[in-house]
Design goal:
This protein has two helices and seven strands; from the N terminus they run βββββββαα. The protein has about 100 residues and is mainly beta. Strands 5-6-7 form a three-stranded antiparallel β-sheet, with no helix packed on it. It has a two-stranded antiparallel sheet with strand order 1-2. A two-stranded antiparallel sheet has the order 3-4. It is elongated.
């Protein structure tokens, strides 16, 4: 759905799926993006064994957009080794792409 400045709602077709580069922990990441205007990764903000948060840029409905993207793998979260790591904080790598 898209909202204009007056608050009117119109439906837009969802773009096709597009893969994003993997993370250090190999968390799978996909998003949606138009061919030729696919979202591009700006930086990864959070990279954990089962979760990733990233900043993207792209287009939505033909307009430029800043995009926040999150990926969560509950299969990984359920793994015993990952659950054993939960009490420990992962080191942050600032500016990692």
């Amino acid at each position: 759905m898209m909202f204009d400045k007056a608050g009117a709602v119109s439906e837009i077709e969802a773009p096709p799926y597009s893969s994003l580069p993997g993370t250090f922990w190999h968390v799978p990441r996909v998003t949606r993006g138009n061919t030729g205007a696919e979202p591009r990764l700006v930086r990864t903000l959070e990279d954990a064994p089962f979760y990733a948060r990233s900043q993207l840029i792209g287009e939505i409905g033909g307009a430029p957009a800043d995009i926040m993207h999150e990926s969560l793998s509950l299969d990984r979260f359920r793994a015993p080794i990952v659950r054993a790591m939960l009490p420990f904080r992962m080191p942050r790598i600032v500016g990692r792409r």
